[in-house]
Every structure is written in C-alpha cells, then in structure tokens.
C-alpha cells in the first residue's frame, strides 16, 4: 500500500505511490520507452557501471550542493526536464511542478506540449523557466514563440533535436493509447526538416541562452558549440526516441572533451538518485535533468509530491557528498569514479530496489 506523503522517506515510496495512483495508460506513458526499451534500460545500466572512489578525512561538516545554471543560482545541480502531456499526471499540467521548483530554488523546462501556456506558466509559477519547443512551423513560427517566451521572462530557449519522428512507444501502441497532446500533430514535418541552418539563424534572433536537447555525440556537440549554442543537453529522451542508443552517461565524457569550457553541459536519462547525479557532476556535467523522477511526485501528490522528491534528493546528495569527502560540487572530479560491474539487471523501476512494481500482462 502506498503511504501518505507525510510518511514518505524514500524516492521509491513516491514511485510506488504514483504507480498506485495513475491509470495503467498514464503509468505506461510515463515509465515506458521506445520499441524494445533497450536505450531506456541502458540509461540505468550505464550508471550502475560506475562506482565511486571516496576520499576521507576532509572535514565535511558543512556541505553546499548549490551551483549556478544559466547565470541563476540553483539549490541543487538539477533541472526539471520537459514533460509533455503533463496534464495526464496532474490536472493543472506542469504548473504544480513549476511551483515546487520555484519553492525549492531549481529551474524547470516547460514543454511546448504541456499545459498551461507560455504566459500562464510564467505568471503563476514564479519559477526560473526554460521553454522547450517542438517545431511545428517555419522560422517565423519559431520566432513568434521566441518573442512570447522572451516577453514572459523565461531564462532560456530550448530546441529538442532528437525527435525527427515520434518514438515508437509499444506500451502505448498495443493499447491504442494516444497521449493528450498527440491529438495535435499538424506540422510535425517541420521537426523532421530541422537542420543546423535553423539553429544558426535562431542564434541571431535572441540573447537568451540557447539549449539543444538531445545531443548524443561529441561531433554534434562540437558543431553546436561552434554555432554559439550555450547549453549542450545530452539526452536520449529517457529512451523514448531512438532505441539501441548508448546509456546517456556513456556519452558524457566525449562531449565534455569536445566542448571544454565553450558551453554548459546538461545531461539526463535514468537519474533517479542523488548518487546518480553526483556521478555526472564528477564526469564534468554542470547539471542533471530529471524526467520521470519528478513525474512520479507530480502524478502521486501534485506540487507537494514534487517538493518531497526534491527534499529527499537534497538529503541523498548531501549524504553522498559527505561520504565522498567533498564539501562543494567543484571538488568532484573524474578521480571520484571508477568502472564497475553492475550488480543487477535493469528494469524501468530497478533504481528502487525495495519495490517490485509488477504490471502484469498487456
Ligand atoms: C512522460 C514524458 C514526457 C516527455 N515529454 C517531453 C517533451 O515534451 N519534450 C522533451 O524535450 N522531452 C520530453 N521528455 C523527455 C524528458 O525531458 C527527459 O529527457 C527524460 O525523461 C529523461 O529521462 P528520465 O525520465 O529517465 O529522467 C519526456 C519524458 C517523459 C517521461
């Protein structure tokens, strides 16, 4: 039985509460990936193939897990990633998550395919918002969105570039389930037609930090950085787009090598615990995006659930930093990690080893 929020002490309990609360269709939409879900599983596998090399006797009585992202202070080195059709998790869409992000002092990316709209999300949340666009029109259409985003006070503009086609989510397909926002699919060919020229022209249109989400190789990271993209966002969309990709964290070292200090590096995909996040920071990421993890909080308990996710994550991060022997994030380096054999086979919820969430047959 899932617990009341006041009794929850671990992230696994929040996952379990979301599993109990959400309909099967909405759970599958949240948790699932594309095709055989190999990319999805590799996100976890790759994280579990990293062990820590802790240092001791460093006086860790005061720990500061905060950092800066896009010129703003963030209380943890994280960003809430865009979740489309968030209204399947909470009737108010992404707004409760944005309010929790504001309360906790972390940023959030608003998906162009999640309610509420650009202006309402900004007015009602008070959060440091980044806008993420799926392109459904020509350059002029993109710039119209950009102007609205600038006028509403967003702190960054993000193009998702790993979605030339909508991933084949078999969990949804076998049930004939279509997420709320998939009914509005006109103009998808503009997303397929995106190229570097669009990015180059977009760069000339705004002073806002520009983020490309869905970079998966050093080659593309280098092109982006040379075009003046501010943030290289490494992502395989949580395993929801191309199947048989690498685990996200496997991509991180080559991207960090390729861009050096030229751009900020964010990564997401399979990060469900404080320790996971610190592995990415040690390998050179500036921040880590969270998708499903805060989706569990939103789906189970709305704003309070997302806040509880962030609180527990902060406890986990502070605990792991102390045990690694660092007092701030800048002290983490590749010397703190080491290759290791994974201890279990991954499944979509294997990060929460106490909870066996069995969905039964389709
Ligand atoms: C339910 C759901 C909806 C998503 N919608 C979007 C979206 O609208 N735009 C986007 O760029 N990424 C979207 N993503 C991908 C996330 O932003 C993020 O890259 C991914 O969830 C990270 O993996 P994680 O869930 O393992 O943390 C979505 C992910 C999920 C789980």
SSE order and pairing:
Layout: H1 11-21, H2 24-31, H3 38-48, E1 50-52, E2 67-69, E3 72-74, E4 78-80, H4 95-104, E5 107-111, H5 118-125, E6 129-133, H6 139-151, E7 156-160, H7 170-175, H8 188-192, H9 196-203, E8 210-215, H10 218-226, E9 231-234, H11 248-259, E10 264-268, H12 274-282, E11 287-290, H13 292-324, E12 337-339
Parallel strand pairs: 4-5, 4-11, 5-6, 6-7, 7-8, 8-9, 9-10, 10-11
Antiparallel strand pairs: 1-12, 2-3
Helix pairs in contact: 1-13, 4-13, 10-11, 12-13
Bound molecules: flavin mononucleotide.
Flavin mononucleotide (FMN) binds near residues 238, 269, 289 and 295.
Structure description:
It is a single chain. The protein is of the alpha/beta class and 362 residues long. The chain has one domain (6-38, 67-317): Alpha-Beta Barrel (TIM Barrel). Helices cover 40% and strands 14% of the residues. The protein has helices spanning 11-21, 24-31, 38-48, 95-104, 118-125, 139-151, 170-175, 188-192, 196-203, 218-226, 248-259, 274-282, 292-324; strands at 50-52, 67-69, 72-74, 78-80, 107-111, 129-133, 156-160, 210-215, 231-234, 264-268, 287-290, 337-339. The strands form 3 sheets. An 8-stranded parallel barrel has the order 4-5-6-7-8-9-10-11, surrounded by 7 helices. A two-stranded antiparallel sheet has the order 1-12. Strands 2-3 form a two-stranded antiparallel sheet. Helix 1 (11-21) runs antiparallel to helix 13 (292-324) and helix 4 (95-104) runs parallel beside helix 13. The longest helix has 33 residues, at 292-324. It is globular and about 55 Å long. The structure holds flavin mononucleotide (FMN). Flavin mononucleotide binds next to helix 2, strand 11 and helix 13.
């Amino acid at each position: 039985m899932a617990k009341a929020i006041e009794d929850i002490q671990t992230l696994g309990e929040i996952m379990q509460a979301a599993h109990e609360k959400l309909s099967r269709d909405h759970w599958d939409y949240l948790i699932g990936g594309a095709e055989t879900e190999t990319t999805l599983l590799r996100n976890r596998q790759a994280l579990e193939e990293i062990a820590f090399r802790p240092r001791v006797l460093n006086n860790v009585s005061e720990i500061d897990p905060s950092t800066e992202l896009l010129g703003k202070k963030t209380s943890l080195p994280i960003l809430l990633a865009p979740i489309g059709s968030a209204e399947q998790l909470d009737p108010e869409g992404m707004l409760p998550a944005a309010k929790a992000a504001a309360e906790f002092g972390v940023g959030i990316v608003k998906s162009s395919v999640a309610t509420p709209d650009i202006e309402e999300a900004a007015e009602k949340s008070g959060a440091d918002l980044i806008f993420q666009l799926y392109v459904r029109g020509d350059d002029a259409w993109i710039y119209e969105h950009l102007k609205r985003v600038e006028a509403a006070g967003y702190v960054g503009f993000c193009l998702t570039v790993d979605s030339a086609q909508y991933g084949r989510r078999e969990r949804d397909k076998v049930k004939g389930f279509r997420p709320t926002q998939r009914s509005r699919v006109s103009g998808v060919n503009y997303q397929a037609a995106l190229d570097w020229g669009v990015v180059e022209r977009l760069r000339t249109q705004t002073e806002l930090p520009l983020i490309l989400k869905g970079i998966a190789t050093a080659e593309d990271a280098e092109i982006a950085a040379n075009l003046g993209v501010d943030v290289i966002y490494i992502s395989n969309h949580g395993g929801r787009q191309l199947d048989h990709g690498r685990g996200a964290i496997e991509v991180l070292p080559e991207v960090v090598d390729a861009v050096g200090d030229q751009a900020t590096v964010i990564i997401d995909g399979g990060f469900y615990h404080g320790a996971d996040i610190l592995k990415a920071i040690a390998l050179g990421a500036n921040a880590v995006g969270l998708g499903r993890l805060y989706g569990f909080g939103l789906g189970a308990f709305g704003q309070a659930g997302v806040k509880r996710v962030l609180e527990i994550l902060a406890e986990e991060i502070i605990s792991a930093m102390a045990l690694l022997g660092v007092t701030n994030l800048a002290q983490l380096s590749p010397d703190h990690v080491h290759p290791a054999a994974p201890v279990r086979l991954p499944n979509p919820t294997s990060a929460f080893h106490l909870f066996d969430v069995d969905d039964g047959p389709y």
